[in-house]
Amino acid sequence: MPERAGISSRYFTKIEQLEQLTEQEAADLGKVAERFSFRSNGYYLSLIDWADPNDPIRTIVVPHMQELDEWGRLDPSDEKTYTVMPGVEHKYHSTALLLVSSVCEGICRYCFRKRVFIEPQSTCLRDIPAAMRYIREHREVTNVLLTGGDPLVLTTSKLEEIIRQLREIEHVEIVRIGTKVPAFNPYRILDDPGLLEMIETYSTEQKKIYVMTHFVHPKELTDVAVKAVHLLQKAGAVTANQSPLIRNLNDDPEVMAELLAKLSFAGIVPYYIFQCRPALGNKAYTVPIEEGYEIVERAKARVSGLAKRARYTMSHSTGKIEIIGKTKRFVHLKYHRAADDADSGRFLVFRCNPNAYWFDDYEEVARRYPIEMPYRSYGPQ
């Protein structure tokens, strides 16, 4: 376990700062970092076993040459389609999303919002009063998700100003903070009592603040990380976890089961296991959907009901599509949440495609072979 001693205060934004890499490795990976930003801090890098080329923390944060493979696109979930002004998205009826930061404590190599680090001025929130007016005028919005980047990179005073204004809007019941800070730099929480006081002030009996953590491997759940989460919970935040399924990171059922179990032990609800989005550079990190389903189900078989609450889901342009079942011939999907409310709850069955990485791959097969069009049954009409 790393000592505090300022270890989290040093940031690394250039590959050549990683003294553990050979000169050739640094030169090669520098080419990747020129295209997709690199960032980490002393705390997180101290968790890496540099003698292990497959160390999970290294996989998460250190560039890989396969990121240069041409695959995917910069906005894989078509977030721009639902952007009502820079930094404000309104895709689902009751939920608005504010991109309040263009910085993370570290940058996950499989990030689906690489465009935030490439074009921060056009993607992040610039006009907070206009965003508040929009939310105020849309009374159907009961949930507001703060994301980015990472909201906890903001100073507590800046974050509090946003949350204070949201709490003044009567119909906003839930404020969510999407953050990987408890994993990337738990000292941000441990060393700032003002942050905890702010959570305690605005997470009330009937209007909670939810902290959506992003733990993706058991190794991230260090003693200090769990303590940071405990302090957030003690201050009144409800905690839930979102984790993508990533090749060579958590695609082993035993590893995923350990992650789910440890989250439940710490009172962090396993909320979503996301199919890795087909973002530019993400091919090496992505597991085919049907293989992913088998991994997730085998992991869930090893844990209690409290640990298996996570849904295996794609965050597709049209909505969150849950992968709910598979037979030898068919894969079964359902719209858990749809951009078009009429699609919510719809049940879909496609012929199996072991090479499908995204919902569009099933749609493409259906278009190419209309005679073989799979049976589709729909839920609520």
Topology:
Elements: E1 11-12, H1 23-35, E2 40-41, H2 42-45, H3 56-61, E3 83-85, E4 88-92, E5 95-99, H4 114-118, H5 120-123, H6 128-137, E6 143-147, H7 156-167, E7 174-179, H8 181-184, H9 187-190, H10 193-202, E8 209-213, H11 223-234, E9 238-245, H12 253-265, E10 269-275, H13 289-300, E11 311-316, E12 319-326, E13 330-338, E14 347-351, H14 359-368
Parallel strand pairs: 5-6, 6-7, 7-8, 8-9, 9-10, 10-11
Antiparallel strand pairs: 1-2, 3-4, 4-5, 11-12, 12-13, 13-14
Helix pairs in contact: 7-10, 12-13
| Approximate shape | globular
Q: How many H/I helices?
A: 14
Total number of strands: 14
Identify low-pLDDT runs. Answer: 370-375
In round numbers, the mean pLDDT is 93
Largest sheet: 12 strands, mixed
Q: Strands of the largest sheet, in order across it?
A: 3-4-5-6-7-8-9-10-11-12-13-14
What structural category do the secondary elements indicate? alpha/beta
* Integer-rounded radius of gyration: 21 Å
Helix content: 25-40%
Strand content: 15-25%
Termini separation: 54 Å
Order of helices and strands: EHEHHEEEHHHEHEHHHEHEHEHEEEEH
Features:
381 residues, alpha/beta, two-stranded antiparallel sheet, 14 strands, 20% strand
Structure description:
The radius of gyration is 21 Å and the shape is globular. It has helices spanning 23-35, 42-45, 56-61, 114-118, 120-123, 128-137, 156-167, 181-184, 187-190, 193-202, 223-234, 253-265, 289-300, 359-368, and strands at residues 11-12, 40-41, 83-85, 88-92, 95-99, 143-147, 174-179, 209-213, 238-245, 269-275, 311-316, 319-326, 330-338, 347-351. By secondary structure, it is of the alpha/beta class. The chain has 14 helices and 14 strands. A hairpin with a 2-residue loop joins strand 11 (311-316) and strand 12. The N and C termini lie far apart (54 Å). Helices cover 31% and strands 20% of the residues. The strands form 2 sheets. It has a 12-stranded mixed sheet. It has a two-stranded antiparallel sheet with strand order 1-2. It has a domain at 7-68. The relative contact order is 0.10. The longest helix is centred in the first third of the chain and has 13 residues, at 23-35. Mean pLDDT is 93; it is low at 370-375.
